[in-house]
Amino acid sequence: MKRLRACSLLLLAVLLLTVPVFADSGPKPMIYVRVENGPEEPYYMDLLEEDPYNAYFFDPDRRVWGYSEEYEAGLDQDLMDGLLAAVPEGWHSCSLQGTRGGLMYADLDGSRSQEEGLHRFVSHGVPETFRVLAVTKSGQIFCSEPLTRRAYQVSVTLDWSAGTVSLAPVWQRYVLQFLATFIPTILIEGVFLWLLGLWSRRNVLVFLLVNLLTQGGLSLWFSVEATQRAIDYWYFWMLIPAELAVLAAEIILYRRFLQEPSDGRAITYAVEANLASAILGYFLAEPVWEFMVVHF
Questions:
Q1: Res. 13: pLDDT tops 50
Q2: Is 154 contained in some domain?
Q3: Which residues is 47 bridged to in the sheet?
Q4: For residue 223, with 0-12 CB atoms within 10 Å meaning exposed, 13-18 middle and 19 or more buried, which class applies?
Q5: Residue 192 DSSP class
Q6: Residue 113 exposed, middle or buried by CB count within 10 Å (0-12, 13-18, 19+)
Q7: 175 and 290, same domain (yes or no)
Q8: Which residues contact 56 (CB under 8 A, 6 or more apart)?
Q9: Are residues 89 and 125 in the same domain?
Q10: I want to staple 125 with a disulfide (CB 3.0 to 4.6 A). Which of 44, 79, 104, 166 is the partner?
Q11: What pLDDT digit, counting tens, does each position of 231-255 carry?
């Protein structure tokens, strides 16, 4: 009974501490470019898209989308002119000339972005096929070969000293997203197994096999969903029926295969463990996804 009370208190704590905030109604296409061994002098970076661009999304009275007039006034006009002058024939600057797909917000200046050397390009104007162009104050130019993003949100690493640019492989995103959702589920449901006094060699084996089947399948499904469409409100709406299906399956399997507990304890374990892991997944989904987009 003491362990049952502790289990319930743990679940209540998870509920109280879980207050996710989503700042937008849905995800946007995004490309992060991380610069390694960057130049010691100021530089600006932009994405390039093949011509033509849609003039509807270009405001001739503004140089850069997504900034306040005060912020834009602080940008280096010479660097922006140098960036435009370095654009190869048949391509255009997404930030300074517009795009074919819509607006795009950009961190041209890596020293003023959310993290030193990290450039974020986001919104519906982010091109599927693109080049990375960087120009320094002294006139050094780096322009990559065309790259194609295979996921909704991707990260690119530019090694300035080596003169190389690499796009993170999609398979790596699938694996990391799967592990990021599956491992916390196993840990928290294992804690509930112990708290409810169900810990034994047989029950641990049953627990691992059942979760590999149910939560493993769920994690795999949502890792594909996150990679292809990113994390949005539809992700969480789909999570509800999926979690209910997993709960029903686990109640049946635990009642059948867990050793010694009554049907009531088996059902209590399945409900509380799944509710806790679902809440934890809801809480971690967006920050885990953003961390992987930026760093992998």
A1: no
A2: no
A3: 132
A4: buried
A5: H
A6: middle
A7: yes
A8: 98
A9: yes
A10: 104
A11: 555 556 667 787 788 888 888 998 8
Q: Is residue 161 part of a domain?
A: no
> Could you say which of 115, 133, 148 is where a domain stops?
148
CA dist 288 and 148 (Å) reads 24
User: Are residues 123 and 179 both part of a single domain?
Assistant: no
Mean pLDDT over each residue of the chain, to the nearest integer: 77
Q: Domain for residue 153, yes or no?
A: no
Q: In terms of residue numbers, what domain contains 92?
A: 30-148
pTM of the model: 0.62
- Which residues make Cβ contacts (< 8 Å) with residue 169, sequence separation at least 6? none
The verdict on 39 and 110 lying in the same domain is: yes
pLDDT beyond 70 at 258 = yes
Same domain, 42 and 11: no
Is there a contact between 183 and 61 (Cβ–Cβ < 8 Å)? no
| Continuous segment of H or E residues that includes residue 194 | helix 170-195
Is the Cα torsion angle 108, 111, 115, 117 positive or negative in sign? positive
Looking at per-residue pLDDT, the higher value among 131 and 153 belongs to 131
Clarify whether residues 15 and 35 are in a common domain.
no
pLDDT digits (tens, 9 = 90+) for 75-87: 888 998 999 999 9
Tell me the range of 57-61, 133-137, 149-153, 288-292 where mean pLDDT is highest.
133-137
